Amino acid sequence: MTKKVLLSIAGLVIYVVxxxxxxxxxxxxxxxxxxxxxxxxxAAAALVVYALLLQTPLFRVFNGFExxxxxxIAGLTGYAMAISVPTVIDRSLSFYLLEKLQxxxxxxxxxxxxxxxxxxxxxxxxxxxxxLTEQVESGTLSVSPQGCVQLTPRGQRLATFSRFFRSHxxxxxxxxxxxxxxxxxxxxxxxxxxxDYLCH
Length: 200
Description:
α2 (35-53) packs antiparallel against α3 (64-91). The chain has helices at 2-29, 35-53, 64-91, 93-103, 113-124, 127-138, 153-169, and strands at residues 141-143, 149-151, 174-176, 179-181. It is mainly alpha-helical. It has a two-stranded antiparallel ribbon. The radius of gyration is 22 Å and the shape is elongated. The N and C termini lie far apart (68 Å).
């Protein structure tokens, strides 16, 4: 039993290394449309190699069911890695804030943080360009030749789910700048009238 446990842990470590190598090779050798999808693809490629490795004599102590368990655990680990590391760092305003503070010598005045977000973060990370690209690639919106950004049926379903989840499953007492607030449960509650940017 102890040998199987140690071997399964060693196998998982091998998979993690394979996944990291596969991801690094993917982003340096191929074009990337969406970081999340590329990360998952690299994790899946590493999983195939790991599954083949499990068929070698090194892992003959495992029966068929145990090998499937190892593959399932490795697959879930790869999925968690894909979401938790490259995707989070690529999308995270929190990481950007840490990096920006470091770039500016370790400190920025609190009353200038809105400026940093609007004038630096949005521009430096090409925020709107990259998010539009991701959504087009994901099939949730389309951009017409006239320049109108529109939800697809899939986008409508996801927006409906997101609004439902936000309304019913996000915390109603959330700490925001020293005060507990429910503002993010319905962020559109205080929206202004639609500006003149709608598609006609």
